[in-house]
Amino acid sequence: MGNPQRRFGKEFEAEADRLVETSGHTQREIAEDLGIGRSTLRRL
User: pTM, whole model, 2 decimals?
Assistant: First the structure.
C-alpha cells in the first residue's frame, strides 16, 4: 500500500508560496529543501 497522504497547515503553505515568489530559487530547490515533491509544491 502507499503512504498516507500528508496534510500541510496554512502557515506551511503560505511560507512555501513566499519562498517560490521571493527566494530566487527554483521550485525544485525549494521542494527539496522542504522535503516535498515538486508536484506537491505546485498544488499548495
Answer: 0.78
Cα 19 to Cα 23: distance, rounded to the nearest angstrom: 5
Please tell me the distance from the alpha carbon of residue 31 to that of residue 18, in angstroms, as a whole number: 13
Contact between 3 and 21 (Cβ < 8 Å): no
The amino acid occupying position 6 is: R
DSSP state of 3: P
Q: Identify the pLDDT of residue 9.
A: 94
Q: What's the CA gap between 44 and 13, in Å, rounded? A: 6
